[in-house]
Every structure is written in C-alpha cells, then in structure tokens.
C-alpha cells in the first residue's frame, strides 16, 4: 500500500503505513492499516482490519520471514530408565525454517534448573530432527526452552510421568547350531543360548518360517526353550 493516496477537493490524504500481525490462523493474514499523515480535523479510516487470505504458501513463508523468521520448537522424545531408575531425557527439535538456524546457549537456548548449558544443540537443521541428544535426568522436572527466529519462547519439560524410551538392550536370540537330519527323525531345538544384557527373564515363542509342500510338521513345546518336531518331508 506504500505511497497510495486518496484525493479530495482540498488535500491529499496519505496512508502509507501498513503492518501485518504475526498471528496466523491457517493461511489467513490479518492486515492493519493506519494514516501516516492527514490534514487537521481529518477523518479516521473506517471499518475494521480485514483478513487477507494468502493461498500461495511460498508467499506466506516469505512474508513471515520478512518479520524475522519461523519457529524452532524443542521436542521431548522420551525419558530413559534402567531397572526403574531414570537416567536421561531425550530431546529433538523441529525447525520450520528452510535453512539451518543457530541459537547459542543462553537466554534463547537454555535448560532449567541450572545449569542452562547441558551440551544441547545450537545449530538447528531444517525440519523435524529426532533424538538429537540426551541429558542426565533423575526424575525431577527438567525443562528446555528455545526462542526461535519468530521471537516466541517454547518450552518442553521432562517429568517422571513422561513416556519412557523403548531402547533397553533387546534380548539376543540364539536358536542353536545348524543340524542335518533325516526324514522320520526328531529334531531337538534349543534357545538356551539366548541372552538379555539387562538380566530380564526370557520367554520363548517358536514358529516355522516355512515348511516343505505337503508337510504336517508341528512344533512341540513351542513356548519353551527346547521345542521339538518330527521331520516328515525331505
């Protein structure tokens, strides 16, 4: 709207100033206009600001970038525990900007309670980045706050009730050595060589991946460590 004018019989009314609110609802941008200057006893603009629907998302992004940039949001992925004891909180982030954003540790990138610096990331790549770093966590509330290029502060907080990471050391299955058998013989399988690094009790469930055409072989003891079956087809 810059340098547009309304002409009357006696004077020129300039209304060159305009602004866009930063609040977006979908793709609706709210425009607010005001006079830069007007004659004495001049009238005010009538009517309320009208929403401007921006259908071109590239244009919308460009308009927002002119106001400073898009958001960078901290994400709490999960909390890590071992044998019922909390050990870490795992964080990622989402950068809505099309390029990397650097936010140094400090007021715009900090943990609380202190220390604010917990070796968190300071260079935020575009898009959603998962499980970027872990921070020691004992179950007490631990918050990470970021102020992104849009100047909005966002915070996530790890607590003892948050979702636990599913990354305990998984059991290692060991179905025993390969065997060469003949039709009619009984095959003895064993999973007793399987291990779990965390010391959790193991359970078993065996099944055939495939069997020869016409075979009716059935596993006996399929939920034990040592099942058997009879070979009925070569």
Describe this structure in words.
The protein is mostly beta strands. Helix content is 4%, strand content 35%. The chain has one helix and 15 strands; from the N terminus they run E-E-E-E-E-H-E-E-E-E-E-E-E-E-E-E. The chain has one helix at 57-66, and strands at 5-7, 12-14, 17-25, 28-34, 51-53, 72-82, 85-95, 101-102, 109-112, 123-124, 127-136, 142-147, 153-158, 186-188, 228-230. It has a three-stranded antiparallel β-sheet with strand order 3-4-5, with no helix packed on it. The chain has a three-stranded antiparallel β-sheet with strand order 6-7-11, with no helix packed on it. Strands 9-12-13 form a three-stranded antiparallel β-sheet, with no helix packed on it. The longest helix is centred in the first third of the chain and has 10 residues, at 57-66. The radius of gyration is 33 Å and the shape is elongated. The termini are far apart. Mean pLDDT is 78; it is low at 1-35.
Question: How would you sum up this structure in a few lines?
Answer:
The protein has 234 residues and is mostly beta strands. It is 4% helix and 35% strand. The protein has one helix at 57-66; strands at residues 5-7, 12-14, 17-25, 28-34, 51-53, 72-82, 85-95, 101-102, 109-112, 123-124, 127-136, 142-147, 153-158, 186-188, 228-230.
Provide the spatial order of strands within the biggest beta sheet: 3-4-5
Alpha-carbon Rg, integer: 33 Å
> By helix and strand content, what is the structural category?
mainly beta
- N/C terminus separation: 85 Å
Q: What's the number of helices? A: 1
Question: How many strand units?
Answer: 15
Low-confidence stretches: 1-35
- How does the major sheet shape up? 3 strands, antiparallel
